[in-house]
Amino acid sequence: MPSRMPLSSVEHALILSLSYVLWRTLRGFFVRNPLDNIPGPPSDSFLAGVLFLLERMGASLTSPTGNVAQLHGPDGFELHQSLERDYDPVVRIHGLFGATQLYVYDPVALHSIVMKDQDLYEESPVFLSLSGLLFGKGILSTTGEEHRRHRKVLVQAFSTRNLRGMVPVLYEVAHRLRDGLMRPQVKDSAKELDMNALLSRTSLEFIGRAGIGHSFDTLASSEEPVDPYTESLKNLTLLIRELAVFTPLAPLISKLGSASLQWFLLGLVPLRSLSALRDVVSTMEARAKTLVCQQIRAMEKDSGKMDVTRLLLKMDDEGTRWTDADVVTRTSMIIQTATDTTSSSLNRVVHLLALYPDIQERLRAELACMPEQMDFDQLVGLPYLDGFIRETLRLYPPIPLMSRIVTQDCILPLSRPIQGLDGKMMGCIPLQKGTGVYIAISAANHNPAVWGADAREFKPERWENGRAEVGVRMSGVYSNTMTFVGGRRSCIGFKFVQLELKVVLSVLLRSFRFSAPSDEIRWSVGAPASPSVRTRPLLPIVVEWLSPRQSS
Questions:
Q1: Is residue 491 a known part of a binding site?
Q2: Which residues are heme-binding (predicted)?
Q3: pTM of the model
């Protein structure tokens, strides 16, 4: 008999998907979900969920419409806007294969999720396991006391004291962006540049230099660098998207012994994307190992400087010291997450500068009154620049939503009752263990009950002396927004992101004018959000070099 060919990735996806569909269908006959009474958009069929996953794996299929395709897809922001506009601040939505979940931006409910009852709402097992598989144990892949210990160490790296010391390094990188990547291309005449490509490189260099004391990119040429780590970092997100259908298996894989054994077993699966992902993770780990060894040698000469890697190498006040292997895996995680968030935010501010020329000129005028290179206090003391950054991060958060899983049956309180499909008013919502809950970051930041009737307008002037008039207090860690979430899983580097943005704008606005953004630029939800033109990652902006006289 002829031997059977190995299953293709699409066939693997089909078997997994149909098995899950059968289980969900049978379960639905016997278990009633109390969330069924909450209004929300119509559900995709189970078949639509299967087709969506197969398409993500590369099959040539027509995209299904509805929750599944849109919430995380290229057109995700259209669904987010619909949920904000057409429903109450707690909305029933449908995950893959009809799984009932909640999309939440009610202020009291969010306070319960991220602060008051945060032990009842944990990162999903899929996210924790996948983070552990890619980066090892760290702040993204741990919970409870272990997570607290990781966070306690890393928070020190982004203290105000350390941020003050980072300012000269950030300026050095911003000057290299200006003089190496941008000015040579536009010094003779205005030109359309792909700012996404330039700012992505700059973001990696920011965290490399300021965060771990290493330079990845000289930023001296418009040609892409050939550093293998840089290439691996670019491919990581793409490969994860290709393998999205297999991410539900991550918790099972995480139980199969050591990381090396897990990757060995995964290597037996005949999938090109999986093999490529293993190579990417291996490259990043090897490069991070080299960086850690360099830091160990550097600490012997200069023990005073404190960046992220050095803090991980030092013993904390509880007598704990991470092993060198632990530090290697944590370093890769820090580089990847910080680079993606910063890149998204930098792209957004440049796009907004081009969209709002009056705002751009007002910022330039404010900067003209200040020294060309400012210190920390001068940077944070510029009121309109600060308002521009706050409004950008409010209206356009880099990560529009985050997910949680309910760890035990509980009650979700609401700020005001909502009307169920049966006509009755509900002042709270019972949640079953295992329910998926989305923290709707964008929707919370656009909520008129919090920000007023002009909540969806871009108005930097709403931030007077760093504060805006609000109707309701939110539980986020930053400026009454949910941009960097709140509680013990809030973003530890949010002050670093703000500082990077201010340094870059203080340099670029003195030298360039940004204009004529293409109408074809679209922003995908992603994690984080990113710009594209016809599905290609691009941010085409016309850049004009300003003479010293023009910039003053």
A1: yes
A2: 491
A3: 0.87
CATH architecture of 150-400+462-551: Orthogonal Bundle (1.10)
Which residue shows structure tokens 């965060």? 211
Q: Which residue has the tokens 């009852």?
A: 117
Compute CA 484 distance to the chain's CA centroid, rounded to the nearest angstrom: 9
Distance CA 487, CA 118 (A): 7
pLDDT along the chain (552 residues), means of 10: 47 51 49 83 57 42 45 75 92 77 96 96 88 84 86 82 91 96 94 94 90 85 72 79 72 81 80 86 84 75 64 61 70 82 95 97 96 95 97 96 93 95 94 93 96 96 90 92 93 92 97 92 85 90 83 52
* Distance from C-alpha of 14 to C-alpha of 183, rounded to nearest angstrom: 51
Taking alpha carbons only, the member of 96, 88, 47, 89 closest to residue 72 is 96
Rounded to whole angstroms, how far apart are CA atoms 3 and 18? 25
397 touches 63 (CB < 8 A): no
- Give the whole-angstrom CA distance, residue 207 versus residue 382: 24
Helices 494-511, 324-355: inter-axial angle, 10-degree rounding: 40
**Cα 399 from Cα 365, distance rounded (Å):** 31
C-alpha torsion sign, points 424, 415, 453, 445: negative
